[in-house]
Amino acid sequence: MARYRGPKHRLARREGENILDKTSASLQRRLNIPPGMHGKKGKRRLSEYGIQLREKQKAKVIYGLLEKQMKSLVSRVSEKKGDTGELLLGNLETRLDNLVYRLGFGKTRYMARQLVSHGHIFVNGKKMSIPSYNVKKDEVITLSPKLKTKFEEISAIPAEKDLILPPFLVRKKDEGMLLRFPTKDDVKVPFNAQLIIEYYSR
């Protein structure tokens, strides 16, 4: 299945809440109106399956995953011991493209994914061009030498003092590090990870 390339606002309106990296006044006004010609008639009440499906769709949009990737990830975490919902969230959060975004190197997750795909991100000194790579504890994320020369000129990228980093990350200038595996208390996300596990357990 191809990655969605259409209007991002449509995805947020479908869920009735802002699940995008950016917001705008126009989006905020229309969040409660689903997309489509019948949007103003409101949403129908969802079944248990429908609720689980919507939670899964939110996570896919937020982290930029395809269905096959999400299904594979859920399958992996379901085989591990522990809170599967928390493990799922932790694995989503430790994706390289997400951490590049969290560290402020990319204004959006899409931009962060492009930086990784184009070879502008290094992990422990080695080029890493796989956005889905799960960063391990104490691994260091840096910008490529080529991008470092332009880093200070990009005013849209905030300095570390202006960032609110989650507690599992630390950053100094153009270098960031994963301190530990994230927990569900570290980040607030607009979806229920446990319901996603239940969706794929059917």
In short:
The protein has helices at 8-15, 25-30, 48-63, 67-78, 84-93, 96-102, 109-117, 145-151, 193-200; strands spanning 121-123, 126-127, 140-143, 169-172, 175-178. The chain has 202 residues and is of the alpha+beta class. It folds into two domains: 8-83 and 195-200, Ribosomal protein S4/S9, N-terminal domain (Ribosomal Protein S4 Delta 41, Chain A, domain 1), CATH 1.10.1050.10; 95-178, Structural Genomics Hypothetical 15.5 Kd Protein In mrcA-pckA Intergenic Region, Chain A (Roll), CATH 3.10.290.10.
Helix content: 40-55%
Task: Kindly provide the name of the CATH class of the largest domain.
Answer: Alpha Beta
- Globular, elongated, flat, extended or rod-shaped: what is the shape? globular
Number of separate helices: 9
State the strand order across the main sheet: 2-1-3-5-4
CATH topology of the largest domain: Structural Genomics Hypothetical 15.5 Kd Protein In mrcA-pckA Intergenic Region, Chain A
Q: Decide which structural class fits the backbone.
A: alpha+beta
SSE order, one letter for each helix or strand: HHHHHHHEEEHEEH
Number of domains: 2
CATH superfamily of the largest domain: RNA-binding S4 domain
Major sheet characteristics: 5 strands, antiparallel
- Any idea what the CATH architecture of the largest domain is? Roll
Average pLDDT, rounded to a whole number, is 85
Distance between the termini: 21 Å
- Counting DSSP E segments of at least 2 residues, the number of strands comes to 5
Low-confidence stretches: none
Q: Quote the beta fraction.
A: 5-15%
